[in-house]
C-alpha cells in the first residue's frame, strides 16, 4: 500500500523534484518508467512524493551521467549505491555504461537497451533545460548540464578532475570558456541563467584555488600581480592565470576585482611584482584611472612586463610599453617568457 504522505512538507511533488534537478517533470516520470528511479511513496491522491533520499538518487544519476556513463548505467549505479552494494558487483554495469557508441548496450535486466545513447545525443540528455553548446565535447556538455541544474558538487568534481588530469589550459580554453560563452549568450538573449552564471563562477574560482593549493608551492620569487579594472567584478581570467603560473612554479599575487587604479601602482611597488596583468571585461567610465596608473609603472626596470587583457581595453590607446594579450597562452608568454 502506498504511504499517506500528503501532510509531510518535506516531501516533494514531481514538479518540485524536477525543478530541483533542472529538468521537466515528464523527464522525471520517464526515469521512473525506464530505470525504476521512482519515489518511495505517493500521496493519498496517488501523486508521486519524493523524499530527500529519492532526490539524492536522482541527483547521483545525473552526476554519473555527466561523468560519462549512459543514462541506464548511471541509474543502476545510483540505485546500487543507495542499496550499498559493493562496487565489484557493479562491474558489468560500469562496462556497459562506458559504451557510448550505441552498440553492445544490451543490459542484463532488460532496461531499455538503446535509451542510453539516444538520450545522450538529444540536446541536454537527462538535463532538460540545459545550456545550448552545439557540437561540444562530452566534457563541455557534462559541465553545462551540471551548471544548468545548479549542481555545485558535480561542477566541482568535474573541474577538479579536468584540472588534475588535463591542466589549466585545456580546462579553461577547452571546457569552461564554451560553457561561459553559452551562459553569456543565454543571458543576452533572454535575460535568464543569471543564477547559473553566478554559481558556475563561484565554483570555478573555488576549483582553481583548490588546484593551486594542490600543486607544489611556487619558488620564492617576485610575483606576477593580477588584478581586474576598478569597475569590474569579472575576475575569472585572473584565477586562470594564477593557476597557470602556479603550474609553472611561478608565484602570483591575486588582487581580485575592482582594484582602484592607484592601488595597482601601490601593490606593484609593495609586492615587488616582476610583472603586472590587468583584466578588463567592461569598458570603464570615461576617466581611465588604471590606464594612467599603468603608464606610471617602472616598466623595463623593476617591472619586466605590463600586460592587459579582455574586451574592455581599447588597443588604440594603450599606454606606451603596455602589451595586450588576447588569450591565456599569449598572456603567459608575455608574463612568464621562457617558461615551458
Ligand atoms: C562570468 C560572468 C560574470 C560573473 C563574473 C564572475 C567572476 N568572478 O569573474 C558575474 C556574475 C559576477 C558577472 C557580472 C556581470 N556581468 Co558578466 N559575464 C560573465 C561571462 C559569462 C563570462 C566572463 C568571462 O570570464 N569571460 C572570459 C571568457 C569566458 O570569454 P570568451 O569570450 O571565451 O573569451 C574572450 C576573451 O576574453 C579572450 N580570453 C579568454 N580567456 C582569456 C584569458 C586571458 C588570460 C586573456 C588575456 C584573454 C582571454 O579571448 C576571447 C576573445 O575575446 C560573460 C560572457 C562572456 N562570454 O564573456 C558575461 C558578460 C561579460 N557580463 C556582462 C554583464 C552585462 C554583466 C553585469 C553588468 C550583469 C548585471 N546586470 O549585473 C555584471 C557586471 C558586474 C561588474 N561591474 O563587473 C556582459 C557584458 C556586456 C558588455 N559588453 O557590456 C557579458 C558579455 C554577458 C552578455 N552576453 O551580455 N558576469
Automatic annotation (TrEMBL):
Residues 80-93 have a biased composition (Basic and acidic residues). Pfam families: B12-binding_2, MerR_1. The keyword Isomerase does not apply. Residues 11-80 form the HTH merR-type domain. Transmembrane segments: none annotated. This is MerR family transcriptional regulator. InterPro entries: Cbl-bd_cap, DNA-bd_dom_put_sf, MerR-type_HTH_dom, MerR_fam, Meth_synthase_dom. Gene3D superfamilies: 1.10.1660.10, Cobalamin-binding domain, Methionine synthase domain.
Amino acid at each position: 500500500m502506498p504511504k499517506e504522505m500528503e501532510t509531510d512538507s518535506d516531501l516533494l511533488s514531481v514538479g518540485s523534484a524536477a525543478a530541483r534537478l533542472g529538468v521537466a517533470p515528464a523527464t522525471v516520470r520517464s526515469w521512473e518508467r525506464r530505470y525504476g528511479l521512482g519515489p518511495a511513496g505517493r500521496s493519498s491522491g496517488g501523486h508521486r512524493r519524493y523524499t530527500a533520499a529519492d532526490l539524492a538518487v536522482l541527483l547521483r544519476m545525473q552526476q554519473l551521467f555527466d561523468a560519462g556513463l549512459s543514462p541506464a548505467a548511471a541509474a543502476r549505479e545510483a540505485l546500487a549505491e543507495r542499496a550499498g552494494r559493493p562496487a565489484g558487483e557493479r562491474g558489468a554495469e560500469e562496462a556497459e555504461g562506458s559504451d557510448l557508441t550505441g552498440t553492445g548496450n544490451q543490459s542484463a535486466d532488460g532496461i531499455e537497451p538503446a535509451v542510453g545513447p539516444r538520450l545522450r545525443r538529444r540536446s541536454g540528455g537527462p538535463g532538460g533545460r540545459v545550456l545550448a553548446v552545439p557540437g561540444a565535447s562530452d566534457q563541455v556538455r557534462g559541465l553545462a548540464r551540471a551548471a544548468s541544474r545548479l549542481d555545485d558538487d558535480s561542477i566541482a568534481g568535474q573541474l577538479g578532475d579536468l584540472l588534475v588530469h588535463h591542466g589549466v589550459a585545456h580546462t579553461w580554453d577547452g571546457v569552461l570558456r564554451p560553457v561561459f560563452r553559452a551562459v553569456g549568450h543565454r543571458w543576452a538573449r533572454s535575460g535568464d541563467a543569471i543564477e547559473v552564471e553566478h554559481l558556475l563562477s563561484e565554483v570555478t574560482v573555488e576549483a582553481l584555488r583548490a588546484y593551486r593549493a594542490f600543486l607544489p608551492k611556487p619558488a620564492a620569487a617576485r610575483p606576477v600581480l593580477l588584478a581586474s579594472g576598478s569597475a569590474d567584478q569579472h575576475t575569472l581570467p585572473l584565477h586562470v592565470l594564477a593557476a597557470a603560473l602556479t603550474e609553472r612554479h611561478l608565484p602570483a599575487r591575486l588582487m581580485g576585482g575592482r582594484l582602484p587604479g592607484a592601488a595597482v601602482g601601490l601593490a606593484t611597488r609593495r609586492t615587488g611584482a616582476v610583472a603586472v596583468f590587468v583584466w578588463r571585461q567592461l569598458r570603464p567610465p570615461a576617466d581611465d584611472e588604471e590606464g594612467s596608473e599603468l603608464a606610471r609603472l617602472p616598466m623595463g626596470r623593476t617591472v619586466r612586463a605590463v600586460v592587459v587583457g579582455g574586451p574592455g581595453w581599447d588597443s588604440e590607446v594603450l599606454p606606451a610599453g603596455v602589451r595586450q594579450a588576447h588569450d591565456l597562452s599569449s598572456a603567459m608568454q608575455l608574463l612568464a617568457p621562457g617558461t615551458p
